Amino acid sequence: MPTLDPTQALAAAAEASPPHHPVLVVGGGQAGLSVSHYLQQRGLGHLVLEKQQALHAWADARWDAFSLVTPNWQCKLPGHDYDGPEPHGFMTKPQILDYLAAFRAKVDPPLIEGVAVQRVTPRPEGGFRVQTSAGTCTADEVVVASGGYHRPIVPRLAERLPPGIVQVHSEQYRNPAQFPPGAVLVVGSGQSGAQIAEDLHLAGRKVLLAVGDAPRCARFYRGRDVVDWLADMGYYDMPVDQHPLREGVRDNTNHYVTGRDGGRDIDLRQFAAQGMELYGLLRGFDGERLLFEPGLTAALDQADRIYNGINAAIDKHIAAQGLEAPPASVYTPVWTPPAERSALPLAEAGLAAIVWCIGFEPDFAWVDAPVFNGRGHPVHQRGISPQPGLYFLGLPWLHTWGSGRFSGVARDALYLAEAIERRLRGGPALQAAGLGSPAKRDPLEVS
């Protein structure tokens, strides 16, 4: 029988008896660090694994002129409310990074960066076996806090476009100077698409925008930020099971608006009046022409109906409460499409680049548990999945509108930490499970 060298012997021993953690948190974004905060408060041993760097998405997947679209007072990470001089302002990208760096320092999580979780598998005896890029470990509880935006969506027609056209997804967009001279087509008019189109437009670039069904809202109305009004009306505390759309609200596109330069509306009609070219949904490419759905007028009209509808709800609230406020108003279009344009010949467009702003798909293939629906989204009740000990955190509308944002993730993280504590405190002896002792930060914990 061959003799193993010491390295092989250690590896074999680790495989036979891998390191164990009471709680393993997958993802070092604001969600993962938030649940770490509450687990530490409860003395529950845990480890946070992040395949890149903690909070990397805010530095790596946001353009240079990015700012929050929600006011700073809504930034309420655990133990780290915004306390700066502009509660009703909108943090810019550098300010967001400073805010998050301070949050990480406060939490001081038991974190290992640069380790990717490759497989999470329930064990027959309970708990989970977790394979990582640094080896294998086990855990009693696993919190999947890796978000829901994993795979950038780029349609197959992109493969057929001329190679001279630069193509990037919204997560790769940084600023207008990254593209060669010429027109830029932005595909998608959700929050990212509308703001990137605005960024290019303000820089003097020729912009073509393929408009989808994204709704819009006012930035300010009747003397206040619309977010302030909606907060007073209880919208941000509404749980998903009380929303008129129920879980269907998770599929909704976010309203486009901006916090740039102190905050303002994004009015695609105004952009068009200033020279931006608007089209309907991009539906194909025939080798010479980009083809669009003839639905631009309907999309703009629907966005305006939602805009005015939100304002009308605020009007009712003001009247019902007997509040003093500036007069009500109704948005009227400043531009209407002269005709629906169904095709754009590339030879005439002078197209230099395309920015795909049509979202992301989830990728939870590494979670080997029967907790997903036919679209690959986890099934859960406020983050608690049907698989005992498996949780999800940081997803849009996990519980409320703010679940995937700085405003609501703390509430969700606390709820899961309390659920985890109940399970673990009712389990084996705490000391035997390692509870109450801080998790080590040596990468050898995952071997």
From TrEMBL:
This is MSMEG_0569 family flavin-dependent oxidoreductase. It comes from the Bacteria. GO terms for molecular function: flavin adenine dinucleotide binding; monooxygenase activity. Signal peptide: none annotated. Keywords: Oxidoreductase. InterPro entries: Auxin_biosynth/cation_transpt (IPR050982), CHP04046_FMN-dependent (IPR024000), FAD/NAD-bd_sf (IPR036188).
